[in-house]
Amino acid sequence: MDTWDWGHDDNRVVLRGSATIAGDPTLDLVANAALDLRLLNVLTPAARITGRADAEVRLGGTAAAPTAGGYVTFSDGEARVADPRVIVGDITGTITLAGDTMTFHRLSATVNGGDAEVAGSIRHRSFTPIDGNLTFRNDQLVRSISRGCARTPTRRSIGRSTRAGRRSAAR
Fold this sequence. Notes:
Helix content: under 10%
Strand order of the largest sheet: 1-2-3-4-5-6-7-8-9-10-11
Largest sheet: 11 strands, antiparallel
Oligomer: single chain
């Protein structure tokens, strides 16, 4: 395939590579993107989204057994939901794809005024989680309560292990 370039300036997707059509098609595709996240507002009418995402994603392997690699980096992100009132701001961080692993590299934000962070890795098969461990941390997350507000620091780790056949959650 020739290079396919869609968009302009800082809102662009560029695709290049090849894919066969025979039997079990092989993939060798690369997508580079610089996107204004306001594009997502068409798909999410309940939330107003702003910010930027920069990405390079490589797809390889075959259609039956695809592989993915690359990254998506978020900056200056914000999502606002009116009901229930939730404001997630200052969204920053990177998610990487390497084979069967998706890693959250200090994906941070503020949630209703409190600092929050997601970190860890998930192994997947065709983007269906198999196992892994993610840690969600928030400091002074502000939760609305009928007569005022409460600030609650939280640290939660969520993991899943297929070997033991158990899911675990620690607080």
